[in-house]
Specification:
117 residues, alpha+beta, five-stranded mixed beta sheet
């Protein structure tokens, strides 16, 4: 099993004031409560037995190899990014209450957005 830790966040197109502020505090301890919100959080990209998964807050969804590679290379939330698509899949899995306790239970399927309609 290969697990890659990711920091998911919004895309900063012009390295605005928030990036400059975070650069000041980069080497200092900052409690997670100040860095974590709906659009800024930690995730894991997982490769296991030839399959690929994405996990946030204990919820795991199955992903394709392409999505796995893309989210590792670009963990930013913006239009058409793999991170944004996976962000919505995780949200849907939470709504449906599936994908918890993987690998002892199944991960949410790739087609999670079509379930429960």
């Amino acid at each position: 099993m290969k697990i890659t830790q990711l920091r998911i966040g919004l895309h900063q197109f012009n390295d605005g004031k928030w990036k400059k502020l975070l650069d000041v505090f980069r080497e200092r301890y900052i409690p997670m409560v100040f860095l974590r919100d709906e659009n800024n959080y930690f995730a894991e990209a997982i490769e296991y037995d030839g399959k690929y998964f994405y996990r946030v807050d204990g919820v795991t969804v199955e992903v394709g190899q392409y999505e796995y590679e893309r989210v590792i290379n670009n963990p930013r939330l913006y239009y058409f990014s793999s991170a944004l698509k996976l962000h919505h899949r995780i949200g849907r899995a939470k709504e449906l209450g599936i994908g918890y306790h993987w690998p002892s239970k199944d991960a949410a399927p790739i087609s999670i957005l079509e379930l429960g309609k």
